[in-house]
Design brief:
The protein has 258 residues and is α+β, with helices and mostly antiparallel strands. The protein is built from seven helices and 15 strands. The two termini are 26 Å apart.
């Protein structure tokens, strides 16, 4: 196995980032610094990065329902709850993409750096679906939002789809979303968005540009991966057919990109 692929399989980093480690002379095998990107790791080789041994790990893929008020981080100096407290104790686990502290919903968590980097990269246009509750009714939806986008603080935000979401849609779904929909009249305050860019706080800033606040934000889908019946704080291993569907979608995108 090529050295960069081995490092990625260990969950250290993506293949590209692993190549940087190799070029910088941070990788050693059998007591020798390895700078050759084509080096093949042999059975029994002990590989070290920055003096610490890295070992090949069994692939791990999880779907996780992030609750609100939980941080997507391995550690928080202010002692907030972090997502990895809910997940298996596996080295090098990290979440693909982020959800801010007040947002909730689906995260894909893995120890496979290459796959994670690919899914998260906007050039692969991995679409994501969000459900949002606004602070007041949205009277109309303009096609220009998806065709031209909106500018907020000098940054363009351009979703792929924006549409109203009915309470019937929410109640008939399989998603386990406590207190959703909330009580009271909420006509035209529920919105479904689909986007692929992955900019920081993209949904919230998009509506901020329109003069609205997002009261609640839930990610229900990442590409072919669906939140399903996972409750807040729960996780499950991804099924082989889900990983295959993910790989198939990524390959289709690669083919389209030529």
């Amino acid at each position: 196995m090529r050295i960069n692929r081995y490092l990625a399989k260990c969950g250290l980093a993506s293949r590209r980032k692993s190549e940087d480690f190799i070029r910088e002379g941070r990788v050693m095998v059998a007591g020798k610094v390895i700078r050759d990107l084509s080096y093949q790791v042999q059975p029994g080789d002990k590989v070290f990065v920055d003096g610490k041994e890295v070992r090949f790990e069994e692939e791990a893929f999880f779907l996780y329902h992030k609750p609100r008020k939980v941080l997507v981080s391995h550690h928080d100096p202010f002692h907030s709850r972090v997502i990895y407290e809910d997940l298996p104790k596996i080295d090098s686990l990290f979440a693909v993409g982020r959800l801010d502290f007040d947002s909730e919903g689906l995260l894909f968590v893995t120890n496979q750096g290459d796959l994670a980097q690919t899914i998260a990269h906007p050039s692969y246009q991995m679409d994501k679906e969000y459900w949002a509750l606004l602070d007041r009714p949205l009277p109309a939806i303009d096609d220009a939002w998806t065709e031209e986008g909106l500018i907020y603080q000098g940054i363009q935000y351009k979703p792929d789809r924006v549409e109203w979401l009915s309470e019937e849609d929410i109640l008939s779904s399989s998603y386990h979303l406590p207190n959703w929909p909330p009580r009271g009249p909420h006509q035209r305050q529920f919105i479904r968005l689909q986007l692929h860019e992955g900019k920081k706080r993209e949904v919230r800033r998009f509506f901020k540009a329109l003069g609205y606040e997002v009261i609640r934000l839930i990610r229900v889908r990442i590409g072919p991966l669906d939140l399903g019946e996972l409750g807040p704080g729960d996780y499950r291993p991804a099924k082989p057919e889900e990983i295959q569907a993910l790989e198939n979608q990524l390959q289709m995108i690669r083919n389209q990109k030529g």
